[in-house]
Amino acid sequence: MSHVDTLLAQHAPWANTDLQWALTPLETFLWLDDRPQYPLLFQITLRFAGSIDPDAMRDAWRFAVGRNPLLRATIRANSRGAVWHASPTGWQELTVVGMGQENSRKTSQIDLEKTSGLHGWLCQTSIGWDLNMIFHHACCDGHGARVFLQDLALAYSVFRRSCLHDDPFFTTDITRLLKRGTHPPIEVANDSVWLRTYRSLRFILLHPKPIARELLLKNDPLGNDRSGTVIGFCSHTFSAEQVVRMQESRKRYDATVNDIAVAMLFDIIGDWQRTHGMRSESRLRVTVPIDLRTREDERMSAANRYSYLFLNRSLKECKAWHELLPELKRELGYLRNTQRGVELLGNIGVFASRPRIMRWVLQRQLCFSTAVLTNLSDPTRRLRKRLRVDSEGFMWLDKAQCIDIQLQTPPLRPGTRWAIGILEYAGRMTFSFQYDTTTIAAPTAASVLQDYVQKWHDVIDGR
Q: Residue 37 has what pLDDT?
């Protein structure tokens, strides 16, 4: 028995078992909403300086996939419904790409009926290695990806005999996967079924306006007929010192980083829409994903356990971010306390039981959200007590220093043309910007992100 098989027998005995789970309503929604131009994928890249053992990383990948069965599962669909099927064999292996070699398996779309929803490449660079992972969102959310990363990093350290703990792995209980689609009942005073139905219809019928197309692209003959994905990406990282000052400065506003980030996004969108001729009565909607995990759910392997909060404003209501902040902060708190995200999952469940209706709604190409903002926080937080961390806050895997973590999430949708992702690592904070390249050019997107970053610099500098 190989070392990886021994480790699986100890920490993931279910890896050699044929497993099936019915798709949850949210997973059904995410599966049916996938499309070539806007694939429901997100990417995480770990950048290493130094030496990585490709064979040990392959074994660590196999172990982590074994611990997280939804990441090795495919979807089997028939007239009775759809199920995840996690086979004990035929798993997706980690591809190793040496210096100067071309990555022939790089993918921009995943068909879950043909292959599993996690693909990975270990690519050699001039300073070390990049570990690139692409996840299909129907398999897991950002926290689920974090669980996979934990298993991967710890297994590699065990194989390389560099782990700080004799038994480093966090407890995993796959029976928790049976509860991944459950949520607490909605308990809101004076909130009738009729009111919830009214809100649902209002959400669908009064949809927001998408980000206006940049003027130089309005006459683009290709437009939305371009083949392949249409997603662009840029990012900015604040230093650890700047983040400390950012955290201190935000106390003046008695608000979280998320509260301020949402307010700034409305400010940026408002300026863009006005500049590009949008009417003042037009509606804007920013979507904020929320984690629904409890403490017990920390034992859950990679899966989806989240929902969305929706913040709506007319264009004329979009003022300077610090004027918007108090109202948005109160609204976000109210939406969380009244479990409005749970209400959304209930509505999705109604549609998921009628797949033809759900497909019809999704095929209408409506704009359900103007932009999305998601915060993954620090995906290495729990690892820092189990792996070596240097004086600069960088995590080490044996002889390799993880100098950066890059995030490309959340995925774009038709009509949802901008997305901001926030990730922390080694005390630094990175803001990533994904955008629809048929509606905004790369130089302009970089300028939009710089405007957003400048607002944070103003907070840091106390202006």
A: 85
pTM for the model: 0.92
Type of residue found at 162: S
- d(CA 365, CA 210) in angstroms, rounded, equals 11
**410 upstream amide cis, omega within 30 of 0:** yes
pLDDT computed for residue 196 by the predictor? 65
Best CA proximity match to 355, nearest among 39, 76, 21, 80: 80
Q: Which residues pair with 238 in a beta bridge?
A: 429
pLDDT in tens, 210-241: 999 997 776 655 444 455 678 999 999 999 99
- pLDDT for residue 352: 75
- Burial grade of 275 (CB within 10 A; 0-12, 13-18, 19 or more): exposed
* Eight-state DSSP code of residue 164: S
- Output phi, psi for 362, to 5 deg: -65, -30
**What pLDDT sits at residue 239?**
96
| DSSP states of 212-277 | PPPGGGTT-SSGGG-SS--EEEEEEEE-HHHHHHHHHHHGGGT--HHHHHHHHHHHHHHHHHHHTT
Rounded to 10 degrees, the C-alpha dihedral 213/217/219/222 comes to -100
CA pair distance 158, 150, nearest whole angstrom: 12
Identify which of 122, 158, 3, 49 has the alpha carbon closest to the alpha carbon of residue 399. 49
Sequence length of the chain is: 463
Locate 398 and state its tokens.
């044996």
**36 token code pair:** 């070539």
193-388+409-460 and 3-179 share a CATH fold: yes
Q: Which two tokens stand for residue 355?
A: 């797949």
- SS3 of residue 106 by DSSP: coil
3-179: CATH number: 3.30.559.10
Residues of the chain with pLDDT under 50: 189, 222-225
pLDDT tens per residue, range 348-370: 887 777 777 777 777 777 788 99
For the domain made up of 193-388+409-460, give the CATH fold: Chloramphenicol Acetyltransferase (3.30.559)
Domain ranges of the chain: 3-179, 193-388+409-460
Rounded alpha-carbon distances, angstroms, from residue 386 to 151, 382, 396: 12, 8, 10
What is the predicted pLDDT for the residue at 187? 57
Helix, strand, or coil here: 198?
helix
